[in-house]
Amino acid sequence: MKKRFVSMFLAAVMAGTMVAAVPVMAEEATEAATEAAAADVDLSDKKVGVCIYQFSDNFMTLFRTELENYLVGLGFSKDNITIVDGVNDQATQSGQIDSFIADQVDVLIINPVNSSSASTITDKVVEAGIPLVYINREPDADEEARWEENNWNVTYVGCDARQSGTYQGELIADLGLDAIDKNGNGKVDYIMIEGDPENVDAQYRTEFSVKALEDAGLEVNELDDQVGNWDQATAQQLVANSLSQYGDDVEVVFCNNDAMALGALQSIEAAGRTVGEDIYLVGVDALSEALEDVLAGTMTGTVFNDHFSQSHSAADAAVRYLTGEGNEHYIGCDYVKVTKDNAQDVLDMVK
Ligand code: BGC
User: Fold this and answer.
1) How many angstroms separate the alpha carbon of residue 136 from the centre of ligand 1?
2) Which end of the chain is more exposed for a tag (fewer CB within 10 A), N or C?
3) 3-state class (DSSP) for residue 178
4) CA-CA distances (angstroms) from residue 320 to 84, 103, 107, 339?
5) Structure confidence at residue 212 (pLDDT)
6) β partners of residue 333
7) Whole-number CA gyration radius for the chain
8) 143 lines ligand 1 (CB under 6 A)
9) What value does the mean pLDDT of the chain take?
10) Ligand 1 center–CA 232 separation, angstroms
11) Is the CB–ligand 1 distance for residue 310 below 6 Å?
12) Residue predicted with more confidence, 95 or 351
C-alpha cells in the first residue's frame, strides 16, 4: 500500500508561508525523537550505515548532507553515522554493504547503484536481521511486493517520478503553441536528455513530460533523445551536438535533471540561442544554480525534488524500525512545479 507523505515544509512553500518552515522541521524531528524516547531506545548508541550511489552527484550531495544533519538532530551520534560513496559501481557498493553487515550496524539506508540489484541486497540485509530503508532509486514492483509478502523490515522512500515528468511537460504546455512553435510546423520540436536509463526517475520523466504535452493537445516531434547519465558535462556535449545538427528547429530541451539542464544551457548560449525567446529549457531538482536561472529567465522552469522531505522521511523510517513500530513498504512525497513566480521561495529554502 502506498502512503503519501506530504511534507509540511513543502506545504509551507506552496502556501507562501515560509516563516513556518523552520519550526515545522524542528517539530518533525522532535516527534521522531520523542517516539524513540517513549520506546526507551537510545538513538545515540545506534549505528547507521548509509550507502550513496555516487558522492559527486549534485542532488545526492544535498540529500546526504541533509540526511546526516537531520539524523544528528534526532539524537544519533555523528560518530555512529557512516556514509560511503559507491562511486557508481555496484560491486564497490555491495562490498560496502558487506562491511556494514560485518560491523553489525543497527539500520541501513541505501541509495542503490543499480536498482536491479535490490533483490540481492535485500536478501543479505534481511538475512543479517538489519532493517533497510531504500532511497532515491526505486526497486521494481516485484521487489517491493516481496517486502510486503514476507513482512520484512524494508521500505522505499522517494517521490513518484511520473509527477515530475508531468510537471515538466506542463511547464512547456502552459506557454502555448504560438510561443513554442518557432518554426511554424504546428508541432513542439524537442530534444530529450535522459538520466541513467536504468533509473525509474529517468524513464518516467522522459515518458511523462512528453505525455503531458500530448495530454494538453499539442503535437510533438522528437528530434533527438540522448543519455546524459545525470551529468552536466555529458549533457553539455550532447546538446551542443543536437543544436548543431537540428539548428533552429530545436524549440524545447527537456533534461531529466537540473545538472544536465545547466550543461544544456551552456550549449544553448554558446549556439547564440536565448531561452525564453527562441528556445525553452526545463530540468528537475531545483538546484540553487537552476533556481537562479529560472529567476533570470535563462531556464523556463524546474521541479523541486524535495530532498528535505525525502531525507527526513528516510531517517524517521529508520527510527520507526529501531523502536519496533515499523513502516509501510512505500513512503512517498510530492514534487513542486517551479516557475519564476515561486522560484525565490524555493531558493530561500534550499540555500
Ligand atoms: C535526481 C537526479 C539524480 C538522481 C540520482 C534523481 O532523482 O533528480 O539529479 O542524479 O536522482 O539517482
Assistant:
1) 7
2) N
3) helix
4) 23, 21, 11, 36
5) 98
6) 159
7) 21
8) no
9) 93
10) 12
11) no
12) 95
Distance separating alpha carbons of residues 149 and 36, to the nearest angstrom: 27
Query: 87 alpha carbon to ligand 1 midpoint, in Å?
Result: 15
Return all residues near 304 (Cβ < 8 A) that are at least 6 apart: 10, 13, 285, 286, 335, 336, 337, 338, 346, 350
List pLDDT tens digits, range 226-261.
999 999 999 999 999 999 999 999 999 999 999 999
Of 51, 56, 62, 59, the residue nearest 117 (C-alpha): 51
The CB of 257 under 6 Å from ligand 1? The reply is yes
Does the beta carbon of 284 sit less than 6 angstroms from any atom of ligand 1?
yes
Q: Where are the beta strands (DSSP E) in the chain?
A: 3-4, 48-52, 81-85, 107-110, 132-135, 154-159, 188-194, 220-227, 252-255, 280-282, 302-304, 330-333, 336-338
- CA of 78 from ligand 1 middle (Å) equals 25
The Cα angle at residue 46 between residues 43 and 50, in degrees rounded to 5: 115
pTM of the predicted model as reported, rounded to 2 decimal places: 0.92
Protein residue with least CA distance to atom 10, ligand 1? 230
H or E element: which one contains 315? Answer: helix 307-322
From 51, 53, 56, 57, give the residue whose CB has the most ligand 1 atoms within 8 Å, as the site to mutate: 57
Q: What pLDDT is stored for residue 13 in this prediction?
A: 53
pLDDT tens digits for range 260-277: 999 999 999 999 999 999
CA 18 to chain centre: 22
Amino acid 121 reads I
Angle of the 258-270 helix axis to the 288-296 helix axis, nearest 10: 40
Whether ligand 1 lies within 6 angstroms of the CB of 57 is answered as yes
Compute, in angstroms, the gap from residue 293 CA to the centroid of ligand 1.
Answer: 19
User: Which residues have C-beta within 8 Å of that of residue 239, sequence separation ≥ 6?
Assistant: 191, 193, 253, 263, 264, 267, 268
- pLDDT at residue 6 is higher than 80: no
183 alpha carbon – ligand 1 mean position (Å): 33
